Amino acid sequence: MSILVKDILFLIFEELQDDSKSLFSCLLVNKHWCETVIPILWRNPWCYSDINYSNKNSLFIIISCYLFDDIKEFITSQRIQLPSVINKSFFFDYLSFCRSINVNTIDNIISIGSSLAYNQFSMQQEFYSLFMRKCPELRYLDMRSIKHQIFCFPEAKICLKSLCELTCDTSIDSSYFYGLSRSCQYIQNLIIVNIDPRPNYGIVKLIEVQKNLKHFEWKDDLFEDYLTEDPYGLFFLALEKKAVSLNHLRIFFRSIYNIEYTLRTLLQLLLPKFHKLKTLIIEYAFLSFTEEQLKNLVYHELEILNIEFSKLNVISSIIENSGGHLKKIIFRSYDIIDIEFDNFDENSLNFIRKIYVNCPSIEYLSIVFSPSKEHFIEFEKLLKVCKNLKSLLLTICNIYEEETNEKIIENGEELLKVLISSAPTNLKEIRFYDYFKFSLDNLEEFLGKWRGCALTMLTSDPLYEREDYKKLFYKYKNDGVIKDFKYVNEYSEIEYHV
């Protein structure tokens, strides 16, 4: 029975693996809990955002205690300050549980011992050698800012063979990736931060040798406005060959005016190849496709869709060919290119219809439409069909005429009526954008009739900061109708983040 209890505890703690505060609290309950939590905490001890690693002396002590005596003597001979408890024995073999290396975080911990660059370099060498010996199966490696060719350590070939997630940047010399390519051929998650405008042939090689690549992320972090070379083509042509296994694709392109056409052309060629995608996230792409190209955007297993700076017809076409599994369709409403053109009404109506016909499992949805009677009717149909809907980001946008304040309040009244009559009971969050306001009477009527989950509501309109509105929210918060009502200054705080 005790073994069963420990197994159940382990499953519970696994769900808390990203919540360091809760896990640290569990350590203090009893020995049994402590023994169960320690392997989870030390699996990836560098990932907790609420820890200041550059001031974490305890981690420096623990790692230092593993060093061989001759290494300790060498380090102290370099006038590096090691902890006075360096020979202390521990209840747990902490590093044996470790399955990850985060270069930047470990370097911050090492800086506790010395502020001199040479001393830090020497300690890094010893610490990484230690990790190669103590971590039998390295699963996660974040090698940004790396200075040591860790694949050259004798134990590295075995240790790195099990690597399944790698985060790197394009400034790292190609030789590092050539070395990794010899051992790491079963990486599943590859995250690349692009900070160097030149092509990195080592990363291209690393992509080419992968045999089971499932998750790929590319994030531009460049400061150039003009590139003399194309750093993208080789990477994504290599990625095309992994289309059979690739499930998750996330791309963030920074707008660089002289290669925008090249990027659009590249994506138009590549995106139809990735038929196995479950996640498709593209930011700052300015995508446009011909009708024939749209027909080829078929992703029968797609669950998450987020395309910024695109047209609604592109998103609608992907929805139509998505296979009915979509759970998230999210985008920044005012980045929809249609808003600037005359076909917005038609395309937004089509978008709503594609959702309720093709997305029965949708849970998170961004939606933008005009305040016309037809749009409200179609939106009501969507609410009645999509019973799993949990969160809505709503934008009503009239691009043809300036709305009066009375009309904007009418739009809000109509919207609240639709939500009361047709919103699914699972709906627990609504995020509101422009061209509608809720009068105090209409909002009180809405909250009085709400029978679903306790609502979290977000808005960027300062109207709801008035005392009479605050008093209303407080009343319905006490009644359990509202979980939270938030006014935020920036639109970006209302948008979904993935």
What does this entry show, briefly?
This protein has helices spanning 2-15, 20-27, 31-41, 57-65, 69-77, 94-97, 103-110, 117-134, 156-161, 174-183, 201-209, 233-240, 260-270, 291-295, 312-320, 344-358, 373-385, 405-422, 440-449, 467-478; strands at residues 100-102, 140-142, 165-169, 189-194, 215-220, 248-252, 279-283, 304-307, 328-329, 364-369, 391-396, 429-432, 455-459, 482-487. It is an alpha/beta fold and 498 residues long.
Question: Can you put this structure into words, describing what you see?
Answer:
This protein is an alpha/beta fold. It has a domain at 1-41. 42% of the residues lie in helices and 13% in strands. Strands 1-2-3-4-5-6-7-8-9-10-11-12-13-14 form a 14-stranded parallel beta sheet. β10 (364-369), α17 and β11 form a beta-alpha-beta unit. α19 (440-449) packs parallel to α20 (467-478). This is F-box domain-containing protein.
